[in-house]
Amino acid sequence: MNDISIKSPQEVMLMRQSGQLLAQVFAMLDTFIHVGVSTMEINDKVEDFIINQLQARPASKGQYGYQYVLNTSVNDVVCHGVPSIQYKLKQTDIVNIDITLEKDGFIADSSKMYVLAGASPLARKLVDVTYEAMWKGIECVKSGATLGDVGHGIQSYAERFGYSVVREYCGHGIGREMHEAPQVLHFGRPDTGLVLRPNMTFTIEPMINQGKEKVKTKKDGWTVVTRDKKLSAQWEHTILVTENGFEVLTLREEEKTRLDGKLI
Fold first, then answer.
1. What are phi and psi of 196, to 5 degrees?
2. What is the side-by-side order of every strand in the sheet holding 164-165?
3. How far is CA 31 from the centre of its chain?
4. Which residues have a Cβ under 8 Å from the Cβ of 242 and sit 6 or more positions away?
5. Each residue's pLDDT tens digit, 217-258
6. Count of C-beta atoms within a 10 Å radius of residue 121
7. What 8-state DSSP symbol labels residue 144?
């Protein structure tokens, strides 16, 4: 427990600030992502917006030697897709945009799926179920709950639809560093694992596959794809444990009605 960061009220305020700025980035992207835009254009637009509009820092750039400010994971790419000038979004694509932002020393991390107009009903269903699975995990968060509760909430929901949960990648603590303790698995058993305490902050970011959970990394050393070439989807939020439940620090405007009337 000693290596788990419990944030002070001031640190929580700064985490909230970073999260709200990151939500603005996605609001900007909602009108920018379209058929024919290259994934590198998305990267460059986000970099300019974070630096020049928000006066913040894209935290992924330079992390672990990575050159870009975000990941663009299209179709069978599970995570860590690398932006490309050559790849232009197609009408049938689904794409996850995963972005980190640092402001005043604290980092927020979030990702969102974008579904292009010609995507198949099966692709749309995977995206929708993955989104709901993330929320099933989030809604397990409260002081005294366990990370096993969170993982079980995600896994049990996704598997109900015949999907599989990627095992190799997980959520993580976050704050002054992008990756802090603990690891947040997206599968598990209730009443097992770390007991949650107020002012812990971590990400919940399930990667859900249409087929088997097995993945592989491409020769670029970054891009992770499904072994069976079936689709994968992911959503991510940065979460604060509160006295009564949770706060989604990266909550986007269109999601606020989801929490109306809920005790958080």
1. -80, 140
2. 164-165, 207-209, 232-234
3. 20
4. 142, 143, 198, 264
5. 999 999 999 999 999 999 999 999 999 899 999 999 999 988
6. 7
7. T
